């Protein structure tokens, strides 16, 4: 799924987001995988103090972690990289 379309799906309130889709969206905002600690995938951005934590639960991203990610994007005025 294209990143922009996926972002629109998430912003429309869908909670049915696959883990791999969420990882690709996080990376499209400039975050890089820093480490994996158990089921937690920790992403860092060079210009943002916050980390992004995503867990794979039965192939899906956790809804509360998606909300946390969107809040970080909004707080830091991050933009989606061009595809």
UniProtKB/TrEMBL annotation:
GO terms for molecular function: endonuclease activity; hydrolase activity; mRNA binding. The keyword Nuclease applies. The keyword Chaperone does not apply. Keywords: Endonuclease, Hydrolase, Nuclease, RNA-binding, Stress response, Toxin-antitoxin system. Gene3D superfamilies: Hypothetical protein (3.30.920.30). It holds the Pfam family HicA_toxin. It comes from the Bacteria. Coiled coil: none annotated. Belongs to the HicA mRNA interferase family. This is Addiction module toxin, HicA family.
